[in-house]
Write a structure and sequence with these properties.
By secondary structure, the protein is of the alpha/beta class. It has 21 helices and eleven strands. Helix 9 crosses helix 13.
Length: 497
């Protein structure tokens, strides 16, 4: 008997457990419990479960006997229940709790085993963890999991990174629990180390933009037409039957129809107008800034939540001068159609900016990420699932190195059809003093891409004046500097870019 075999035999004897599970889950709060139940419901999976507090483990096992969970009450026992290569999915809070669980698993796991972080970790933390864990011989996988509590139970969209070796074992397990869209599981091996959590981060950033755009559309319709939330719910339900079909449009109609039991008012009128955030939207914007990628629609959505959460500033600003006339709409149906088209165009921009960031991140961190495959795994299970993700997949299939998604023929046609309405809505909102930051910034980005010449030339001239940052010319090669404090002659300078 080898030393490893003797160790395993001793561990099994001490714990009384046998290696019967092919997958384990650590952390049994709602997301972890639902994911464990999802795993257990799929043929071929036997699931070991462990939680720091025994009560949650006992409750889960007692409430779901059909799952035939293999409970463990120590990390040693948990490891002993897992067949090799041992595979464990961590579903705990990001940060120190995740590091603590990793350290504990490393004490009982062996080379070749797999630790999967299924939480919303910052991708740079995942890069760090993967490098440290790899040195022990254990595989570490950062996997973005989208779909919330319902997705975890019924089928999420999953974005795993990690090594090729880990995907051999992990791939079939994740495919068994992922959402299915048009016959395809919504999971793919995104790339190595932090690639999975990077893509999940951008997914959440797009989610911020999508939600803000929908909120602006609702606000404009309500102010412009006087329709009730229930009537606007009908509008969104109708939109969900067309090119705007998506999970977020669907649930928006449900939220707007909800009546508060206590007051009898629409629930949306009772909810405090201060939006919370958990950080992934901010990470998306911060990372984009570092990569030099404009994600203005996403950024404005993040800032809109921040502004909403400063009641002390809003309170003292209510008497600031505003528009002279409120929004006055004579043709409600035509206005609502304009809002729909503006929403669709702005939504396209949000996705395009997100995919730009993924491409830039892949180049920066040496990942090979298939953008078409990413769009396909977002078609089901995740929060931003939408009908037009198929069009995105087709665009990248036709032109894998497409510089910007907006230039794909389908989106050129869609934006051409929508831009008149888009401009009218932004103009009306500005004229009436109605904040529509995501609509407005998306249109400005679109026009920035279209512009034959941008005022960046003046910015570069200013930079050269006060900081000798140099500039390039349109009529000849080289890098130049004007001697602004001298005789203002131009000299050829060393390229500082």
């Amino acid at each position: 008997m080898t030393e490893a075999s003797r160790t395993e035999a001793t561990r099994t004897e001490a714990t009384g457990s046998e290696a019967t599970a092919n997958i384990g889950v650590v952390g049994l709060a709602v997301m972890g419990s639902n994911l464990a139940r999802n795993l257990a419901s799929r043929e071929g999976n036997t699931v070991a479960v462990y939680n720091r507090s025994r009560e949650k483990t006992d409750t889960l096992v007692a409430e779901h006997p059909e799952a035939e969970f293999v409970p463990a009450f120590s990390y040693e026992e948990f490891a002993a229940t897992l067949a090799k290569p041992r595979t464990a999915i961590i579903m705990v809070k990001a940060g120190r709790p995740t590091d603590a669980v990793i350290d504990s698993l490393l004490e009982v796991f062996e080379p070749g085993d797999i630790i999967v972080d299924g939480g919303n970790a910052l991708f740079t933390d995942t890069i760090r963890r993967e490098k440290a864990v790899r040195e022990t011989g254990v595989n570490f996988v950062g996997a973005g999991i989208s779909g919330g509590e319902e997705g975890a139970l019924l089928g999420p969209s999953i974005m795993p990174g990690g090594s090729d070796e880990s995907w051999v074992t992990l791939g079939p397990i994740l495919k068994s629990i992922a959402a299915v869209a048009e016959g395809e599981p919504c999971v793919t091996h995104v790339g190595h180390d932090g690639a999975g959590h990077f893509v999940k981060m951008v997914h959440n950033g797009i989610e911020y933009a999508d939600m803000q755009l929908i909120a602006e559309a609702y606000d404009l319709i309500r102010r412009g037409t006087g329709k009730s939330p229930a009537e606007i719910a009908d509008v969104f339900a109708e939109w969900n039957g067309g090119e705007l079909e998506s999970y977020l449009i669907e649930i928006t109609a449900e939220v707007l129809r909800q009546i508060d039991a206590e007051t009898g008012s629409p629930l949306v009128d009772v909810i405090l107008d201060q939006a919370g955030a958990k950080g992934t939207g901010a990470w998306t914007v911060q990372t984009a800034l570092n990569l030099g990628v404009p994600v203005s629609g996403i950024a404005e959505a993040v800032f809109a939540r921040s502004l909403s959460s400063h009641p002390e500033q809003r309170e003292v600003s209510r008497d600031l001068p505003g528009a002279a006339e409120p929004l006055a709409i004579s043709d409600a149906d035509a206005f609502i159609e304009d809002v729909r088209l503006a929403l669709y165009a702005s939504k396209i921009v949000a996705y395009s900016q997100g995919f730009d960031e993924i491409r830039a991140g892949a180049a920066e961190y040496d990942w090979t990420i298939d953008l078409g495959a990413v769009s396909k795994i977002w078609r089901g299970g995740c929060i931003i699932r939408a009908q037009f993700l198929n069009r995105i997949a087709e665009a990248y299939q036709d032109t894998p190195d497409l510089p910007v998604l907006l230039a794909a023929p389908y989106f050129v046609e869609a934006l051409g059809r929508a831009q008149g309405a888009w401009r009218r809505i932004v103009q009306l909102a500005a004229g009436a003093g109605i904040p529509a930051p995501a609509f407005s910034s998306s249109l400005a980005y679109y026009d920035g891409l279209r512009a034959e010449r941008l005022p960046a030339a003046l910015v570069q001239g200013q930079r050269d004046f006060f900081g000798a940052h140099t500039y390039k010319r349109i009529d000849k090669e080289g890098t130049f500097h004007t001697q602004w404090s001298g005789d203002r002659t131009e000299i050829e300078a060393e390229d500082t870019h």
